[in-house]
């Protein structure tokens, strides 16, 4: 991965709680965040004494490199938001400036925690579809804005292999959102659901109390069935 290809975009703990329907009990579990990027979820959870490991290939870069890239891209993102206001639901945010402020605040929290988190192996530079963790290493996997969202870039085979890995490392897997970048339901969703049906994985599409991108208001929850 080249840093010039990365557009850092970080979400907060509160957004994670809403995207994935997290309960107080969920927050006490061993959590693996997949594709977390510069989200502040891990940092905020660490401050609260909780156990989160985040994986993302961008963690191969230093804090200064990521800080510079965030500074170089956030205005471009702001302009894109302003040009595409009809693609979003403006209930949590008043305007594009409010989105940028919230995202920059989350990424600032991430950066303040990043170096310590690397040393503690809470941020690990790896990516799907192959994970170096033993079976059932975690209680809960949260995959935010990666699978399904990038269906054009990530193939059906990639999705199926990734689902197999995620369910291997945790019994409870939650993926959000289920739509692509253009707001349509992912063309890979039905294949994933069929794969789950054939492989003893309970798959439920669940509405959540979160929506910014239009159409993105559901998560997929996967539970490994006992044979």
UniProtKB/TrEMBL annotation:
InterPro entries per UniProt: SAM-dependent_MTases_sf
Full protein name: Methyltransferase family protein
């Amino acid at each position: 991965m080249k840093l010039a290809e990365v557009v850092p975009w970080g979400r907060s703990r509160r957004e994670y709680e809403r995207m994935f329907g997290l309960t107080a009990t969920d927050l006490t579990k061993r959590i693996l965040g997949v594709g977390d990027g510069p989200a502040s979820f891990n940092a905020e959870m660490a401050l609260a004494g909780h156990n989160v490991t985040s994986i993302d290939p961008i963690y191969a870069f230093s804090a200064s490199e990521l800080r510079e890239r965030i500074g170089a891209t956030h205005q471009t993102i702001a302009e894109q938001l302003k040009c595409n206001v009809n693609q979003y639901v403006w209930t949590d945010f008043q305007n594009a400036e409010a989105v940028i402020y919230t995202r920059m605040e989350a990424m600032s929290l991430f950066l303040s925690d990043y170096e310590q988190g690397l040393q503690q192996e809470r941020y690990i530079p790896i990516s799907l579809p192959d994970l170096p963790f033993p079976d059932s290493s975690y209680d809960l996997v949260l995959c935010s804005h990666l699978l399904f969202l990038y269906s054009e870039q990530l193939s059906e085979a990639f999705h199926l292999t990734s689902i197999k890995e995620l369910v291997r490392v945790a019994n409870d897997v939650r993926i959000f959102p289920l739509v692509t970048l253009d707001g349509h339901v992912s063309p890979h969703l039905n294949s994933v659901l069929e794969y789950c049906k054939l492989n003893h994985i309970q798959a439920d599409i669940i509405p959540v109390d979160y929506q910014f991108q239009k159409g993105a208001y559901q998560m997929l929850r996967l539970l490994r069935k006992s044979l």
